[in-house]
C-alpha cells in the first residue's frame, strides 16, 4: 500500500494504478476507521481493480461549536486496517493541500441540504459537497462508496454528481451495526458504556416503526410516534421524520413512494444519526454488509 500526502503525488499514483484498464474504487473518510468503513473498502476491493482511501478531517463541514478539535483520530490503526484490507493507495492530505490560502469556491447543494441535519448544522453539507467534489476531481474514481448511515449526505452527493456531470458512480452501502443495533460511527467513541447501551434505543425505535410499516402502517405521524416511544426516553431528539428517499423532504401524507425514517438525537452530549429505509426488513438492517 502506498501513502501519499500531496495532490500531485496522488494523481501520478492513481494514473499508475489505472494502467491496464483497472477500475478505481474510492472510499473517502475522516479516519478513525471502523467496521462500517471496512465494509465500504470490502465493496470497493470486490468491485474495482484498485482501491483508494482518503483520510481527511474536513474542517469546513464542522460548525463553530462542533467537535472538529476533539474528533477521534488513530492514524496508525487506520493504516493497519487499510493495509490488511488490500487498499492500494492511502491519501493523507493536510488542510492547506485541500484548502490553499485564498480558497473561496464552494459547492452549494441547495434544497436537499436544507431539512434534517441541514437545519441544525448550517453549512455542513456545503462543506461535505465541496470536499467530496474536490476529492472526486483529485482521484477521478470510477466508483465511490458511502455508508447509508449518512443518508442525507448520500442524497446530496448523488444529486451533486448528477447535476455537475461528474463521471463517477456513487454506491451506498448498508449501515453496519453493533450486536445491540447501534449504528457504527466514529462518534460512538464519545459514548460511555452506559450511554452506548442506551443508544441502542435509537435503532430499536426505527426498527419498531419499520416493522409497523411492513405490517401495513403508512401514516408518517404514526410511524414517527412508534419510533419516538423508544427513542425519546433514552435521548434528546433533534428530529425524527419520514422523508422521501430521493429528495429528503418530509412526507406529510400516507407513504406512497420509497421513503426512509431518519433521526438525529443526543445521547448525553453525543449527537447520533440513524435511519431505516422503510420496508427493507430486519435482515438487511442487521446483516450490515451490502
Ligand atoms: O462521511 C464522511 O466521513 C465525510 O462526510 C466525508 C464524505 C469523508 C467528507 O468529508
Brief rundown of the structure:
It is built from ten helices and nine strands. It is of the alpha/beta class.
Order of helices and strands: EHEHEHEHHHEHEHHEEEH
Q: What structural class is derived from the secondary structure elements?
A: alpha/beta
Helix content: 25-40%
Q: Which CATH first-tier class of the largest domain would you pick?
A: Alpha Beta
The CATH homologous superfamily of the largest domain is termed HUPs
Tell me which ligands are bound.
Answer: pantoate
What oligomerization state is this entry in? Answer: single chain
- Runs with pLDDT <50, length 5+? 283-290
Q: End-to-end distance, in Å?
A: 25 Å
Calculate Rg over CA atoms. 19 Å
**Beta content:** 15-25%
Overall, the morphology is: globular
Strand arrangement, major sheet: 1-4-3-2-5-6
**Total domains:** 2
What is the CATH architecture descriptor of the largest domain?
Answer: 3-Layer(aba) Sandwich
What summary fits the major beta sheet?
Answer: 6 strands, parallel
For this structure, the CATH topology of the largest domain is Rossmann fold
What integer is the average pLDDT? 96
Amino acid at each position: 500500500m502506498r501513502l501519499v500526502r500531496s495532490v500531485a503525488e496522488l494523481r501520478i499514483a492513481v494514473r499508475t494504478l489505472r494502467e491496464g484498464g483497472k477500475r478505481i474504487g474510492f472510499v473517502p473518510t475522516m479516519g478513525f476507521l471502523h467496521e462500517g468503513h471496512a465494509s465500504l473498502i470490502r465493496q470497493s476491493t470486490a468491485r474495482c481493480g484498485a482501491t483508494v482511501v482518503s483520510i481527511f478531517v474536513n474542517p469546513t463541514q464542522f460548525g463553530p461549536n462542533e467537535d472538529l478539535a476533539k474528533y477521534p483520530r488513530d492514524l496508525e490503526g487506520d493504516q493497519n486496517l487499510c493495509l490488511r484490507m488490500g487498499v492500494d493507495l492511502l491519501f493523507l492530505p493536510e488542510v492547506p493541500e485541500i484548502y490553499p490560502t485564498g480558497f473561496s469556491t464552494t459547492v452549494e447543494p441547495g434544497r436537499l441540504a436544507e431539512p434534517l441535519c441541514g437545519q441544525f448544522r448550517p453549512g455542513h453539507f456545503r462543506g461535505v459537497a465541496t470536499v467530496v467534489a474536490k476529492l472526486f476531481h483529485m482521484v477521478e474514481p470510477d466508483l465511490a462508496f458511502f455508508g447509508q448511515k449518512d443518508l442525507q449526505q448520500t442524497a446530496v452527493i448523488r444529486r451533486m454528481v448528477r447535476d455537475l456531470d461528474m463521471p463517477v458512480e456513487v454506491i451506498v452501502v448498508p449501515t453496519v451495526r453493533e450486536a445491540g443495533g447501534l449504528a457504527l460511527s466514529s462518534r460512538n467513541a464519545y459514548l460511555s458504556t452506559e450511554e452506548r447501551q442506551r443508544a441502542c434505543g435509537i435503532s430499536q425505535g426505527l426498527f419498531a416503526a419499520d416493522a409497523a410499516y411492513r405490517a401495513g402502517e403508512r401514516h408518517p405521524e404514526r410511524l414517527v410516534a412508534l419510533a419516538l416511544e423508544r427513542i425519546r426516553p433514552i435521548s434528546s431528539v433533534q428530529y425524527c421524520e419520514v422523508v422521501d428517499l430521493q429528495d429528503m423532504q418530509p412526507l406529510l401524507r400516507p407513504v406512497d413512494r420509497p421513503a426512509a425514517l431518519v433521526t438525529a438525537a443526543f445521547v448525553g452530549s453525543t449527537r447520533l444519526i440513524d435511519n431505516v429505509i422503510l420496508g427493507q426488513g430486519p435482515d438487511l438492517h442487521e446483516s450490515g454488509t451490502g
